[in-house]
TrEMBL record:
Protein origin, superkingdom: Bacteria
Organism placement in taxonomy: Bacteria, Bacillati, Actinomycetota, Actinomycetes, Micromonosporales
Keywords for this protein: Isomerase
SUPFAM superfamilies, A to Z: (Trans)glycosidases
EC assignment: 5.4.99.15
Keyword Oxidoreductase attached: no
Pfam families hit by this protein: Alpha-amylase
Enzyme class: isomerase
Protein known as: (1->4)-alpha-D-glucan 1-alpha-D-glucosylmutase
NCBIfam families registered for this protein in UniProt: trehalose_TreY
CDD domains in the cross-refs: AmyAc_MTSase
One record GO biological process: alpha-glucan catabolic process
InterPro entries recorded: GH, GH13_cat_dom, Maltooligo_trehalose_synth_4, Trehalose_TreY
Length: 756
């Protein structure tokens, strides 16, 4: 059976399996059916996320090891809960070689290692390049021999048998690896990476031997009943995701499997034997329906005024993707080009195709039409490449061709680095829509379009995960909900932000607009949090400074801009006052989003802490510790009969979350269908509602506009004449037509259940 609801916990060394086990009773009371954890296998020492696995055979000792996992399993079972575990098949951590036994053996023995085929290494290029040296021609002089190993500062490397005599430089030159300048990683590396991260080496999980070795422990958890579900990280990096999922399903036939597949708007997922995605598609739909689509032109005008930009989103994306394709992923591009040595312009043509690719990747033969679209757009942008594009296309269409296989792995990385990690930080028109799985030019989502997409999900992927916040979202659900209010007050926002950029100027006005939206969206937040976010955003945007080429003068100006918000009393007060003005309607949006996500088709996930207001920004801000004691106390008060007000405590969100989750867990038969519900009356467009087959959800949208109309007035909804109980307030209603003003008198959302 799929979960009725999951709760994501960022299990990490400072909040390990023992601490997680202590949440079991709280999560059961909250109403979820399954705990959903970050990766649990042994990761690089100090890892705070677990996606850099170094030993696939053991639960991480830093999290408590196998005994702690067993205790967690027992605690969950005693509370009536299951477990869903995040797994990482695409890559392994290699940044600290001596803790990864398979990578260490490959470095020591080269192609003679029994693990030589474990990793996606281009052995034709000779020694494995390890970009770890300082940017200095004399960096190798810092090598030393110690305890039978080569050492470079705190880095340790193995020495092949019989090669340990001589100076450190001489010993180094005899190894199966070559330590090189760290700047050469993006262009010359000869092993596949996760995106552009040299410390994460690609695994050849398409090899059954590698699959078995990397999944034996995970599958043991499934077979022994420790885990009932798996969340698969980054399947787009795999050589053949379809074959991988077939193998995984055969090995775990009863498991609930969801995949981190990021669908672009309108894209359909292949018919893999899985429950569906992890919910970024649902996130985009839910978030968009709470945005006023009629004010897009205001934000276009404001963006042009602030930064003078005339570049379209499509052209910006092409630019950032092409840069990612040729620079950050230059090593992967060069490896593909070596497969077509007869085509001199292959690198340019392959990069252009990747920059024009409209989705993350194809899964040949599925999705081959996306290749045709990329070819057409690449030809339009680079007509001189048309003969080369056509020459390559035949091979790129062939799923058995090595070039086609690698190109499919490449386009996903180009999309992620070019769009998620760059363009989203440059296109700052309205950042409530700058989220993974969404096109920011889709300013808002009409209710009819929302209903259509939701009904499609019910028909095709009813057990997929839905989410609003994750460890990868650019800003939390409550920040986006508050920023959605800006779409209802575009004139007010234009006035204040134009004044603020004059008071606290920044040479990069697009980035400034991003920072101002972060400030009001997450306010109140500490100076340190906003400074950290602004600096990360600037480096990701890579327009005025970057991770590899920092501009100290610009970063100083950025710090001074943020400091001004806190040190200028008048500006600080104005920012605080504006944030306060959009906070109450933001709460209404937050409750609406949550009620919709928790009750729509799919399996709802609650990201840790987001059952109360959570105004987090991008990681690591969204991995901050959660005060579970406060949440327990508030939930107890609610269960004792307290109806919390919609205020800064966020307890109203906890009420909505717990009651919706409990109902889904206790009465799944009420959530088998889907029928849109429309209101009648002058404010009917402000209601979003649907009937799941006995459970009816009603949410308020565009609350500022509703207030301008004086409230709900004569607006009514028609039900089927039964008696109904509203779950959040435990109030009974009867009759065919219900007054929305009466129904939403206490909260801006309602969940109605037919009385038996």
């Amino acid at each position: 059976m799929p979960p009725s609801g999951t709760y994501r916990v960022q299990v990490r060394p400072d909040f390990g399996l023992k601490a997680t086990a202590e949440l079991a009773d709280y999560l059961a009371e909250l109403g979820v059916s399954h705990l959903y954890t970050a990766p649990l296998l042994t990761a690089t020492p100090g890892s705070e996320h677990g996606y850099d696995v170094v030993d696939h055979s053991a639960v991480s000792p830093a999290l408590g090891g196998a005994a702690a996992l067993s205790d967690l399993s027992n605690a969950l079972k005693n509370a009536g809960l299951g477990l869903v575990v995040d797994i990482v098949p695409n890559h392994a951590g290699v940044g600290v070689p001596h803790v990864n036994p398979t990578w260490w053996d490959v470095l020591r023995r080269g192609r003679e290692s029994e693990f030589a085929d474990f990793y996606d290494i281009d052995w034709s290029r000779g020694r494995i390049l390890l970009p770890t040296l300082a940017d200095s021609p004399d960096a190798l002089d810092d090598l030393r021999l110690e305890d039978g190993e080569l050492r470079y500062f705190d880095k340790r490397y193995p020495i092949a048998d019989g090669t340990g005599d001589g100076t450190p430089r001489e010993v180094h030159d005899r190894q199966h690896y070559e330590l090189v300048n760290w700047t050469r990683g993006d262009s010359e590396l000869n092993y596949r990476r996760f995106f552009s991260i040299v410390d994460l080496a690609g695994l050849r999980v398409e090899d059954p031997k590698v699959f078995d070795a990397t999944h034996a422990e995970i599958l043991r958890w499934v077979h022994e009943g420790i885990a009932q579900g798996l969340r698969v990280d980054h399947p787009d990096g795999l050589r053949d995701p379809g074959a991988y999922f077939e193998r995984l399903r055969a090995a775990a036939p009863e498991a609930w499997i969801v995949v981190e597949k990021i669908l672009e708007p309108g894209e359909e997922m292949p018919g893999w034997p899985v429950a569906g995605t992890t919910g970024y598609d649902a996130l985009a739909e839910v978030g968009g329906v709470f945005v006023d689509p009629g004010t897009e032109a205001f934000f276009d005008t404001l963006q042009h005024h602030l930064d003078g930009s005339v570049t379209s989103w499509q052209d910006l994306v092409h630019e950032t993707k092409y840069t990612a394709a040729t620079k950050l992923l230059g090593a992967e591009l060069a490896r593909m080009a070596r497969l077509v040595p007869e085509v001199e312009a292959a690198p340019r043509a392959l990069a252009e195709l990747a920059a024009c690719f409209p989705v993350y990747r194809s899964y040949l033969p599925y999705g081959s039409r996306q290749l045709a679209k990329a070819r057409a757009e690449a030809g339009r942008r680079r007509p001189q490449l048309i003969p080369v594009l056509d020459q390559l296309l035949g091979r790129l269409r062939n799923p058995d061709d090595e070039l086609a296989a690698r190109f499919q792995q490449y386009t996903g990385a180009v999309m992620a680095k070019g769009v998620e990690d760059t363009a989203f930080y440059r296109w700052t028109r309205f950042t409530a829509r700058n989220e993974v799985g969404n096109d920011p030019t889709d300013f808002g989502v009409a209710p009819d379009d929302f209903h259509e997409a939701t009904e499609e999900r019910r028909r095709h992927w009813p057990d997929a995960m839905t989410s609003l916040s994750t460890h990868d979202t650019k800003r939390s659900e409550d920040v986006r909900a508050r920023l959605a209010v800006l779409s209802e007050v575009p004139g007010d926002w234009t006035e204040v932000v134009r004044r603020w950029v004059r008071i606290a100027p920044l040479p990069d006005p697009a980035l400034a607009h991003l920072v101002w939206q972060a400030a009001v969206g997450a306010w109140p937040l500490s100076r340190e949090r906003l400074q950290a976010y602004a600096l990360k955003a600037a480096k990701e945007a890579a327009a005025s400074t970057s991770w590899t080429q920092p501009d100290e003068a610009f970063e100083t100006a950025l710090r001074e801009m943020v400091d001004r918000i806190y040190d200028d009393p008048a500006l600080h007060r104005e920012v605080a006052d504006f944030a306060a003005s959009i906070t109450p309607p933001g709460w209404i949006n937050s409750l609406g989003q949550k009620a919709v996500q928790l009750t729509m088709p799919g399996v709802p996930d609650v990201y840790q802490g987001s059952e109360l207001w959570d105004f987090s920004l991008v990681d690591p801000d969204n991995r901050r510790p959660v005060d579970f004691a406060a949440r327990r106390e508030l939930l107890t008060r609610i269960d004792d009969g307290w109806l919390p007000p919609v205020d800064e405590t966020g307890a109203a969100k906890l009420l909505v979350t717990s009651r919706a989750l409990r109902l889904r867990r206790q009465r799944p038969e009420l959530f088998a269908g889907y029928r849109p519900l429309y209101a009648e009356g002058r404010c009917g467009e402000h209601l979003l509602g649907f009937d799941r087959g006995g459970a009816v959800t009603i949410a308020t949208r565009l609350p500022v506009g509703l207030s301008r109309h004086g409230g709900w007035g004569d607006t009514e909804v028609s039900l089927d004449g039964h008696s109904w109980t509203e779950v959040f307030t435990n109030t009974s209603y009867g009759g065919n037509r219900l007054s929305v003003a009466e129904l939403l008198r206490t909260y801006p959302v309602a969940l109605l259940v037919k009385e038996k």
